[in-house]
């Protein structure tokens, strides 16, 4: 290897002054997985004007091209930049400005973190996110009593890890006008002995959202820059932000155009009527870094907070079915509206009842509509008899780490009979031909290597369970890599510009410290990204 490297270095020296085609960048001596079916493996490529101009052997690329920037990869594994098909990029950035409650093992630990945060920040509003009662010894929703004692005059709003429940104190309830008599459809205001506990699930959360002060522009910009730095460190070069408003989309666009934000963003418009109507009237907004061509809709809530809509009651909560956050009639009406536009409809559907409602709405309006690629976001519990609705036009967008996070309690929650259609990525792939893979961060961790490991191994980081969680629905390494690159790009109508390393596509690529396609699976979560490049520019 050393002799070969020296010889190639000599080749570079000998031919560098000859009349060769000019490139902006040459990478050679790399272990490249191109995700291009016509040329799956390569060792070198040349980049010009932010795009791959040629891909091949080191000898061929060095003979054809000259560049002032030549990188010897020294055998490192190189992949197309990862695409997270479902995440909350802006939300991740905002989380850096809040109390981080992820990984807390008890309600007491939650309280401790809030107290420490407030001592440092002295915030007029205390915001936090990341708690999950399923990770606690006592797997019950918390109660606001201790928050009331600690913060009697400061509103506290603590968001559950999945974003589908709040724990708030009495001050926040008072400001929001929520009492024991308040009723809101599409969710729950939890009570004990007729008194409020401070836990709000799904739609009632909107009443609290209304009292949260608007973030100023500097905070928003800092959030986006913080999120970008985190994502680049994990090799993400495109993120699908699953639900952001017009103001945030326009801020992202302005930062990208000013050269202040390099991350590529596929933005799903939050289902706010005025925002949706604005973009429908304007038409698809597409630049080399921003793609606005879809609407994010919430079908139901989350399984962890028992808000997912099920056909039959929850096995661990008699008589409770969950709830649709958006009524079926409204989903059907929006589907008809969007079907007459070029925009995608991307709908959060977790429970089997929500999934069939959305699948039927999609099928009804997409007949004879051509290539539309509408997405079911999550597709977490799907009845086996409903799987056939998925196709190249109705795509599953799933998050493999949800399976390994939920596997400890999901069967108790939904019962053994429904497990056949739970986190069934193999069955979904067989029906649709592709699956787009993401993380749903900050609900889960940002790392795409955890996505890869959960998709292929179906285990947690301790190797549990030994044979994998429902291993018949695991994906192969090749399928998983496609789901995080080319298939994710295809689901965004971007397969001609990204998702693989081939001539004419954007030069988004990453260097890894290990070969993700060959190392033992248990080593995958620890893989490090050594370099991240976007459009031929090194950003990490």
What does this protein structure show overall?
The longest helix has 17 residues, at 217-233. It is globular and about 85 Å long. The chain starts with a helix and ends with a strand. The protein is an alpha/beta fold. Helix content is 31%, strand content 23%. It folds into 3 domains: 2-75, Urease, subunit C, domain 1, CATH 2.30.40.10; 98-209, Diaminopimelate Epimerase, Chain A, domain 1 (Roll), CATH 3.10.310.70; 216-534, Alpha-Beta Barrel (TIM Barrel). The chain is built from 18 helices and 27 strands. α4 links the parallel β11 and β12.
Strand content: 15-25%
CATH class of the largest domain: Alpha Beta
Give the CATH superfamily of the largest domain.
Metal-dependent hydrolases
Terminal Cα span: 27 Å
Helix content: 25-40%
CATH topology heading of the largest domain = TIM Barrel
- Counted beta strands: 27
Number of domains: 3
Mean pLDDT: 95
Structural class: alpha/beta
Sheet having the most strands? 9 strands, mixed
Rg of Cα set: 24 Å
Q: Estimate the global geometry from the Cα principal axes.
A: globular
Poorly predicted runs of 5 or more residues: none
In short:
With 540 residues, the chain is of the alpha/beta class.
Write the layout of secondary structure elements.
Elements: H1 2-15, E1 21-22, E2 25-28, E3 31-33, E4 41-42, E5 44-48, E6 51-56, H2 58-64, E7 65-66, E8 70-72, E9 77-80, E10 82-87, H3 89-95, E11 99-100, H4 107-121, E12 126-131, H5 145-150, E13 156-160, E14 165-168, H6 170-176, E15 187-192, E16 195-202, H7 205-209, H8 217-233, E17 236-244, H9 246-257, E18 264-270, H10 273-282, E19 285-286, E20 290-298, H11 328-339, E21 344-349, H12 352-366, E22 374-378, E23 394-398, H13 400-406, H14 410-414, H15 425-432, E24 436-437, H16 448-457, H17 477-483, H18 486-491, E25 509-512, E26 529-534, E27 537-538
Parallel strand pairs: 1-7, 2-8, 3-9, 10-17, 11-12, 12-13, 17-18, 18-20, 20-21, 21-22, 22-23, 23-24
Antiparallel strand pairs: 2-5, 3-4, 5-6, 9-25, 13-14, 14-16, 15-16, 19-20, 25-26, 26-27
Helix pairs in contact: 1-2, 3-8, 11-12, 13-16
């Amino acid at each position: 290897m050393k002799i070969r490297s020296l010889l190639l270095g000599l080749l570079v020296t000998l031919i560098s002054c000859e009349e060769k085609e000019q490139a902006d960048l040459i990478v050679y001596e790399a272990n490249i997985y191109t995700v291009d079916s016509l040329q799956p493996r390569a060792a070198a490529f040349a980049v010009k004007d932010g795009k791959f101009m040629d891909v091949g052997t080191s000898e061929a690329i060095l003979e054809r091209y000259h560049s002032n920037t030549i990188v010897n990869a020294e055998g490192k594994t190189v992949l197309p930049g990862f695409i997270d098909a479902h995440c909350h990029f802006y939300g991740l950035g905002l989380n850096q400005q809040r109390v981080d409650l992820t990984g807390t093992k008890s309600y007491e630990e939650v309280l401790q973190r809030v107290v420490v945060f407030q001592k440092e920040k002295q915030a007029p509003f205390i915001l936090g996110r990341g708690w999950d009662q399923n990770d606690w010894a006592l797997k019950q929703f918390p109660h606001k009593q201790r928050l009331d004692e600690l913060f009697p005059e400061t509103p506290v709003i603590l968001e559950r890890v999945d974003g589908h429940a709040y724990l708030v104190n009495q001050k926040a309830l008072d400001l929001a006008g929520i009492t024991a008599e308040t009723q809101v459809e599409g969710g729950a205001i939890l009570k004990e002995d007729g008194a409020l506990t401070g836990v709000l699930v799904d739609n009632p959360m909107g009443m609290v959202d209304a009292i949260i002060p608007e973030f100023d522009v500097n905070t928003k910009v800092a959030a986006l820059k913080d999120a970008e730095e985190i994502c680049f460190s994990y090799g993400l070069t495109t993120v699908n932000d699953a639900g952001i408003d017009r103001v945030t989309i326009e801020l992202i666009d302005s930062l990208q155009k000013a050269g202040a934000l390099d991350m590529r963003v596929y933005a799903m418009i939050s289902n706010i009527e005025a925002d949706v109507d604005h973009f429908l009237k304007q038409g698809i907004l597409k630049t080399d870094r921003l793609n606005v061509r879809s609407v994010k809709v919430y079908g139901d809530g989350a399984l962890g907070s028992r808000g997912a809509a099920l056909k039959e009651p929850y096995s661990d909560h008699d008589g409770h079915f969950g709830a649709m956050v958006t009524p079926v009639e409204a989903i059907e009406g929006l589907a008809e509206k969007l079907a007459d536009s070029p925009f995608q409809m991307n709908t959060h559907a977790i429970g089997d009842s929500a999934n069939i409602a959305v699948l039927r709405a999609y099928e009804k309006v997409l007949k004879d509509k051509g290539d539309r690629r509408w997405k079911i976001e999550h597709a977490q519990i799907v009845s086996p008899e409903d799987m056939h609705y998925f196709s190249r036009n109705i795509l599953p967008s799933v998050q493999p780490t949800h399976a390994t996070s939920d596997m400890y309690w999901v069967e108790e929650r939904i019962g053994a009979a429904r497990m056949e259609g739970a986190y069934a990525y193999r069955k979904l792939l067989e029906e649709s031909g592709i699956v787009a893979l993401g993380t749903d961060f900050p609900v889960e961790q940002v790392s795409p290597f955890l996505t890869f490991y959960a998709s292929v191994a179906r285990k947690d980081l301790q190797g549990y369970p030994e044979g994998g969680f429902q291993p018949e629905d695991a994906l192969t390494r090749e399928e998983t890599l496609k789901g995080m690159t080319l298939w994710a790009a295809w689901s965004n109508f971007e397969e001609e510009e990204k998702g693989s390393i081939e001539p004419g596509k954007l030069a988004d690529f990453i260097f890894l410290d290990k070969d993700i396609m060959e190392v033992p699976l248990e080593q995958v979560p620890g893989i490090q990204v050594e370099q991240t490049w976007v459009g031929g520019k090194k950003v990490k």
